[in-house]
Write a sequence for this structure.
């Protein structure tokens, strides 16, 4: 099987980006209309985000990305805007699991080495992040095998549909 | 080696000798959703090609976030949740019964249970000695379908609380102090296990407030031993037969041990826009408030309303302050009416909302205007949380909230009691 490669440019955010900033509670009435909800992705952190994001791009964040609510709509709308992966210094627990369950890779690395607009390449199979703009290479933290299996299947639902149960 | 409370529960339920960092599969005693996470859960459940729940009587839908519904879209979501309950036979609590976490504590949670909910404050049930944690819609959909889920066994922090709370100091002040000390990500993936003299002496209501806020330090669970207070709570809720004592082993292994003296605590406030941005209430005199909100799964219980009523008795809210009260459940509301607290609060000028999440998450019933300040007894003050990113939210205890409602500015409650 060929290596899983993701390529795109960096869209940078700071620390403590809450789920309220990612998909504000005031849009809860759009949660059964996901294409409308996705138009407001990251609205309170960067109102221009949806216009800027191109398929393949990365969200680059500081520490504690996705803190707050359990709303899985947060990684879901991020994925819908075309973001291929989230790179952060650290991630809140529920968001981490939700992101994997949506098949959206979320990688822990030193994001100080990435600036907004940098061209990024991620080799998911080899575990290497390359900042093509600066030439710096980064590695990312290992995640449990069960989560790798889930993300490889594209999310928890396809994973369960394939295996019928959790396999450890 | 001995086990933490968390390791004990996950070992017993999974049937393997589980230690921190192990990954286990365990059956769940309760899986639930609320009305803003439920529709996506149903969608994921249906995408898994299933139509049957593993155990309908251990599966619950709570309508609490958007009740009575503020718009047609959310009304339609409520309809689809009702249809799902009818089709699958799961339990459903209609709007007006209360907030999911309060109802779980009143009607479902038992010590030693594993509880998963599609709401981050599911941790609240840790007050009863349950391993209770929030998850997203996909995880809950699969927990509903299979009756089990996977967990990484968390490392535990032992939080030992000595002494007693001084007058005017509440469990909320301890929770805010602890989160300020740990930081908003200081306990990410960890279990907070509470103990010590002050923890033993805490009422169930106080324990629920503290367990509720464990997630604000990033924790997976916040858990108290199951003791005589737990036994009395379960007996009062008509399930005394479910009580079992549950303590950590004395030689359990903790990643960190933190000691807090309740005697030294003072009324605390979390300032905008993160919960770990704390300061003593006395240092914030002069910060004008436009709205005071007393309620939520953190502080909407009978003791909280009693505290607020004792401060607001024969007083009026400041003319520039909207004082909003939302009891956490129908049981709380009924008891508060009987005790005269509601009469006192309404006479003081409060607006009474139905039992539910109300203004907490910015959908309705108290959305803030531009540049407005709310002092809330809730658990989150993120930018935009109460429906307007141009507004500011401060978090405090019911005592600080009531005192501030009288003066119109953030006020240390010890000044007015």
């Amino acid at each position: 099987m060929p290596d899983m490669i993701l390529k795109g440019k960096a869209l940078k955010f700071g620390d403590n980006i809450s789920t309220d900033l990612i998909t504000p509670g005031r849009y809860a009435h759009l949660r059964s209309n996901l294409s409308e909800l996705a138009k407001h992705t990251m609205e309170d952190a960067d109102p221009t985000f949806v216009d800027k994001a191109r398929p393949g791009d990365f969200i680059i964040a500081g520490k504690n990305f996705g803190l707050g609510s359990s709303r899985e709509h947060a990684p879901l709308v991020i994925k819908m805007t075309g973001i291929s992966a989230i790179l952060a210094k650290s991630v809140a627990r529920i968001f981490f699991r939700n992101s994997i369950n949506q098949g959206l890779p979320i990688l822990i690395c030193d994001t100080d080495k990435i600036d907004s607009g940098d061209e990024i390449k991620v080799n998911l199979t080899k575990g290497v992040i390359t900042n093509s703009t600066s030439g710096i290479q980064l590695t990312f933290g290992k995640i449990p095998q069960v989560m790798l299996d889930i993300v490889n299947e594209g999310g928890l639902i396809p994973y369960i549909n394939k295996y019928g149960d959790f396999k450890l | 080696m001995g086990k933490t409370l968390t390791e004990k529960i996950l070992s017993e339920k999974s049937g393997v000798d589980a230690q921190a960092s192990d990954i286990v599969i365990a059956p769940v005693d309760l899986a639930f959703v609320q009305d803003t996470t439920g529709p996506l859960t149903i969608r994921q459940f249906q995408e898994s090609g299933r139509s049957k729940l593993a155990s309908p009587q251990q599966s619950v839908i709570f309508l609490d976030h958007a009740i009575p519904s503020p718009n047609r879209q959310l009304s339609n979501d409520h309809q689809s949740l009702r249809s799902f309950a009818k089709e699958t036979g799961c339990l459903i609590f209609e709007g007006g019964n209360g907030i999911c976490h309060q109802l779980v504590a009143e009607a479902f949670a038992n010590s030693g249970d594993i509880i998963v909910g599609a709401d981050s404050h599911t941790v609240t049930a840790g007050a009863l000695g349950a391993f209770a944690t929030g998850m997203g819609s996909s995880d809950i959909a699969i927990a509903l379908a299979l009756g089990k889920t996977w967990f990484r066994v968390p490392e535990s922090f032992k939080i030992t609380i000595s002494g007693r709370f001084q007058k005017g100091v509440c469990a909320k002040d301890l929770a805010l102090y602890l989160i300020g000390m740990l930081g908003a990500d200081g306990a990410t993936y960890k279990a907070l296990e509470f103990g010590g003299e002050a923890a033993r002496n805490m009422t169930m209501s106080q324990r629920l407030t503290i367990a509720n806020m464990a997630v604000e330090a990033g924790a997976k669970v916040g858990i108290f031993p199951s003791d005589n207070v737990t036994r009395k709570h379960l007996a009062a809720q008509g399930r005394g037969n479910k009580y079992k004592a549950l303590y950590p082993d004395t030689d359990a292994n903790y990643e960190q041990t933190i000691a807090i003296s309740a005697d030294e605590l003072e009324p605390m406030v979390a300032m905008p826009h993160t919960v770990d941005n704390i300061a003593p209430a006395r240092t914030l005199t002069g910060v004008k408030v436009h709205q005071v909100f007393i309620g939520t799964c953190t502080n909407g219980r009978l003791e909280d309303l009693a505290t607020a009523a004792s401060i607001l008795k024969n007083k009026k809210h400041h003319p520039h302050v909207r004082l909003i009260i939302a009891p956490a459940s129908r049981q709380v509301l009924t008891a508060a009416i009987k005790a005269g607290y509601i009469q006192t609060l309404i006479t003081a000028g409060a607006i009474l909302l139905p039992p539910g999440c109300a203004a907490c998450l910015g959908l309705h019933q108290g959305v803030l205007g531009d540049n407005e300040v709310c002092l809330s007894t809730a658990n989150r003050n993120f930018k935009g949380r109460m429906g307007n990113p141009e507004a500011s939210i401060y978090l405090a205890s019911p005592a600080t909230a009531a005192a501030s409602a009288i003066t119109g500015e953030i006020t240390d409650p010890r000044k007015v009691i």
Notes: Chain A has a mean pLDDT of 96. Chain A touches chain B at residues 16, 18, 20-21, 24-26, 28-33, 44, 63-64, 67-73, 76, 90, 92-94, 97-98, 101-102, 144, 146, 155-157, 160-161, 165-166, 168 (CB under 8 Å).
